[in-house]
Specification:
The complex is a heterodimer. Chain A has two domains: 198 residues, no CATH class; 133 residues, no CATH class. Helix content of chain A is 32%, strand content 20%. Chain A has 13 helices and twelve strands. By secondary structure, chain B is an alpha/beta fold. Helix content of chain B is 20%, strand content 32%. Chain B is globular and about 50 Å long. The chains are: A alpha+beta, B alpha/beta. Chains A and B meet through strand 4, strand 5, strand 11 and strand 12 of A and strand 13 and strand 14 of B.
């Protein structure tokens, strides 16, 4: 299908169409930072955002969700499954975050399917937006996950001046723009997209080369840098890690979760829930009788870095997409790109 | 599609008291079809749910297709609740998960089994398997150590194990309180190594116990000629899902729940801080 264009001032046409079928979530700017929130009218939408604090992972792997409820009656237990079935549309999601979702898609399928994640993804539509302005922390270009997107979208928007270029990725995307009476895109629009991509690529301040990094990181399990990160500080001006876990909570590919039961006051029913967990927290690898397989802070930051380099059990499905959120929120100013550089130096 | 997180209800058919804080449970699914289709290999584990308390990963402590056997020591909130349960009570289970002991690779070889404390539980299935197919395996040697003789489990099995043809059972306890009417050596499992019959040639080692014990045992075995790839060990980690999704049990490039819990020593050696 041909590409289309829509005037920026007419985005409400698109939004109204989306709202007919979906609950729409998009970037809003309630304060100084952007965040993904529910969009009900065009005034809430801020598509010219740089990066959000939390990644859109929160719509598919919520910080807290109920897996099933259980009941006890006459000494007998019954369980009742809870399956999410809401149709949601994420509007204005950047390429790095789309790549993160593609990684999580692979992660939550395979030998065992995570139906909660998969159902949410199945019922969702992705309206991606190419980046034309990098944040000072992002380095997606060096990882091939941005700044422009080639896959994983239903509809892809690109800012080409006063218009958005609309490219269609799937039949869902086709259905969503059908009958909207939009202008066809011209050759010039694609030239403008190309020009903006070239311009954008020059603006990145950070980069990370992860080829061979999994191997390098694995072979340097006792490298000094892990002591520096965990105890001493001093990797490119950083302080030692505080094990606050911020990096894992803002990471779009961090998937670890904790499972716990919540019991009703009557003690007759309850729910089993899961919530996001962080490998930086002391309890993460704790077992019965006080055993802990990652008691030292350096072991925990080491594990996270390996995971983001694709050298942990999640492999490439949990590796970095270069969104730069962890660098932005780290209170100790730890920069994953500097860690990678230091490891490469040996 | 089946929801992998949903436990199936099972009934506790029988409880065997092992020690003051450890019981063995024989369980059966309420769903008859699930029970008949259930099959497991020694070394695998199941997730046990006590609704309201949570879920725990506990190994299968015998192979028997008629029921599911678990030996559980009271060490936390879930296991504490299980220990207070009676025959006839119900519990949620799902599984089996993980890889078992490499019994196919052990065929035709001498088998050395080293267990510490509760580590004998996942190994009992392997012993039963070897006993049932005695001609397929060479010499069988079992070294079992516990903190005290009173902490030893499966005491009723010892005589049966001693009667297995071409085998040897060695028992040891770290400390033996005075007036304990029990015949075993005093010392760590490694103190049994000098009198060990199994030699490194054509042998396979199945190792399970506290990680510190496994590290020392592996080190000692290395000094008497065993190669890393002859040693298999079963690891303990925090597990919340059992299916490689929650992330807690990661060790290097592997999930203990999905790729283990039984690993070849060469694969995980760098990650468990070898001596």
């Amino acid at each position: 299908m041909k590409a289309l264009i829509i005037e920026k001032n007419s985005m409400n046409i698109l939004l109204e169409r989306f709202l007919e079928e979906y609950r729409v979530f998009g970037p809003t700017k309630p304060g100084s930072d952007s965040t993904f929130d529910e969009i009900k009218s065009i005034e809430q939408l801020h598509l010219d955002y740089i990066s959000t604090v939390l990644p859109p992972k929160k719509f598919f792997l919520p910080p807290n969700e109920t897996l099933f409820s259980f009941n006890i009656k006459n000494g007998k237990f019954t369980t009742k499954e809870i399956r999410p079935d809401e149709k949601i549309l994420i509007l204005g999601i950047h390429p790095c975050d789309v790549h993160a979702l593609l990684k999580l898609d692979k992660f939550f399928s395979g030998d065992f399917n995570d139906l909660y994640y998969q159902n949410r993804r199945k019922n969702s539509a992705i309206i991606a937006l190419n980046c034309v302005e990098p944040s000072e922390h992002s380095f997606c270009r060096s990882l091939g996950t941005g700044p422009f997107l080639n896959e994983g979208y239903d509809i892809l928007l690109t800012d080409v001046g006063t218009n958005y270029l609309i490219e269609i990725g799937t039949s869902t995307g086709k259905r969503l723009v059908k009958g909207l009476n939009l202008t066809n895109a011209s050759e010039e629009d694609f030239h403008e997209k190309e020009r903006r991509l070239k311009l954008m690529e020059k603006k990145f301040k950070k980069s990370m080369n992860i080829s061979w990094l999994p191997k390098i990181a694995r072979e340097n399990l006792d490298h000094d840098i892990w002591f520096d990160l965990g105890e001493r500080g001093g990797v490119a001006g950083s302080f030692p890690c505080l094990s606050c876990g911020s990096c894992t909570f803002v990471c779009p590919t961090c998937y670890c979760y904790e499972v716990y039961d919540a019991v009703d006051l009557s003690l007759k029913s309850g729910t089993r829930n899961r919530e996001l967990d962080s490998c930086q927290l002391l309890e993460y690898a704790e077992v019965a009788l006080g055993g802990n397989f990652r008691r030292d802070r350096k072991d925990r930051i080491h594990h996270w870095m390996l995971c983001k380099f694709g050298a942990a059990a999640g492999g490439k499905n949990s590796s970095c997409v270069g969104c730069g959120r962890c660098i932005r929120v780290c209170p100790s100013k730890i920069d994953i790109t500097e860690v990678a550089k230091a490891l490469r130096r040996g | 599609m089946i929801n992998a997180y949903l436990p199936n209800l099972a009934i506790i058919k029988k409880i065997i008291r092992e020690t003051h804080n450890t019981n063995t449970y024989m369980l059966e699914f309420f769903d008859k079809q699930l029970q008949t289709s259930f099959s497991c290999t020694p070394g695998q584990f199941m997730m046990y749910s006590v609704f309201g308390a949570g879920e725990s990963a506990i190994s299968l402590s015998d192979i028997n297709n008629n029921d599911i056997t678990a030996t559980i020591r009271n060490v936390g909130s879930v296991t504490n609740t299980i220990l207070n349960m009676k025959e006839g009570d119900s519990i949620g289970i799902r599984g089996p998960y993980g890889t078992g002991w490499p019994l196919d690779k052990a065929k035709g070889k001498n088998v050395l089994i080293i267990a510490g404390g509760m580590g004998i539980a996942p190994l009992r299935g392997a012993i039963t398997h070897i006993k049932n197919q005695r001609n397929n395996f060479g010499h069988l040697e079992i070294i079992y150590g516990a903190r005290t003789p009173g902490d030893m489990i499966f005491k009723y099995e010892f005589e049966k194990w001693r009667q297995i043809k071409n085998s040897r059972l060695d028992l040891t306890a770290d400390t033996i309180p005075a007036n304990t009417p029990f015949e075993c050596k005093a010392g760590l499992v490694t103190s049994c190594f000098p009198s060990m019959k199994t030699q490194h040639k054509n042998a396979i080692v199945l190792l399970c116990g506290p990680e510190i014990m496994m590290r020392y045992a592996a080190k000692c075995l290395e000094t008497i000629g065993f190669k890393d790839d002859q040693i298999y060990l079963s690891l303990e980690r925090r597990m919340k899902c059992g299916i490689g999704k929650c992330g807690h049990c990661q060790i290097g490039l592997k999930y203990v729940c999905k790729d283990g819990p039984v690993f070849n020593y060469t694969d995980i050696k760098p990650f468990i801080h070898p001596l």
